[in-house]
Design a protein that fits this description.
By secondary structure, the protein is α/β, with parallel strands linked by helices. It has 4 helices and 9 strands, in the order ββαβαβαββββαβ.
């Protein structure tokens, strides 16, 4: 005798309509898609990785270089994620992006305020857009390297930073990337 909400299964047992074959297949597909990256891996290319080397030890010069590169990438129509080393540095970058060019405005926001801004400032948050430019001011590699088409590491002559960036350079090579050095 049929029970409301149930239908006989292929093995003679009754099962709930919620466990129908098509529903279960859809659920499996949905759950397996959660395990996949949110981008089409077949269309990805290795990111272009460059280490921009400054000749001074000046930390402010490094931030100004990041602002200039963010402006250039945004002007070219690319989404930009500037990865700071901490909240304080992100705050400095936020202020500097308002003032470093009197004649130009760079639309930017902190990631937690507006993650879809053309230029986003953050630390290790997952970028909301893909295949943009990462400007890395952190001392380590971003955990989201594969989401960018271009990665720029800005290096100055502070000994601790030089050491960390050399390690990053080696790590990129060990992972199969071909980082390049650019003297500024």
């Amino acid at each position: 005798m049929p029970v409301a909400g149930h239908s006989p299964g292929y093995d003679g047992y009754r099962r709930s309509e919620l466990c129908s074959r098509s529903f279960c297949i859809a659920k499996i597909r949905e759950q397996s898609s959660l395990l996949q990256p949110p981008f089409n891996i077949e269309n990805l290319q290795m990111p272009r990785i460059e280490f921009y080397v400054l000749s001074s030890k000046d930390a402010t010069g490094r931030l100004r270089a990041a602002c200039q590169l963010a402006l250039k990438a945004w002007s070219a129509g690319l989404p930009v994620f500037v990865r700071g080393s901490d909240e304080a540095q992100c705050g400095e970058l936020d202020e500097l992006l308002w003032t470093f060019k009197a004649e130009r405005f760079v639309p930017h926001d902190l990631h937690h305020e507006a993650p879809l801004s053309p230029v986003v400032l953050g630390i290790d948050e997952v970028p909301s857009t893909e295949q943009g430019v990462l400007i890395n001011l952190g001392s380590s590699l971003s955990p989201h390297v594969e989401r960018f088409s271009r990665i720029i590491e800005i290096v100055n002559q502070q000994p601790e930073l030089l050491s960390a960036c050399r390690e990053n350079f080696r790590t990129y090579r060990q992972r199969g990337y071909d980082p390049q050095r650019v003297e500024l």
